Amino acid sequence: MPTCYLDRDGVINHNLPYVGTLDRFFWHSEIIEIMKFLKRFGYKFILVTNQSGIGRGYYSLEDFYQINNVIKERFRLNDLSIEIRFCPHTPSCNCSCRKPKTGMIDNDLRTKEDIFIGDQPNDMICAFSEDVMHRWLINREDYKLATRWAKNHKELLLEIKNWYQNDIKKTNN
Asked: Which residue among the candidates 9, 63, 114, 123 is catalytic per the annotation?
């Protein structure tokens, strides 16, 4: 079963500094349609997110879990499910799970169809380091390790069918 990894802040929701409470959590509405498209091809979804706001004391683990519950419920209402993995450490901890390190994804079985959707170079570095072949970046600027790039979620939604057809389906035939 192929996996689609997704970053949280900037991919699932708008990237504000330290989104740790529901009053700062604002959906990117297109992400549901993006995931529904990929679900048709058997993808499972894993959210991988750095959450140093927990380690810095900006918000609690309970606050983080509250947001997770909202995410999971919205996905459930759209017939989607997602596993959530996170790193609560600050950069100074030098842990193995904080992206761009690969601790959140390095034990997974890899397929040629796996995708990582991120919005930062650290997401692309993590995916590249773990041989995720399809690295889709949502950002105003392209990055060398991204295999595809969209300026925003609307552009990704417009391009996803072509990207899937040209990059994933063709390589498996």
From this structure: 9
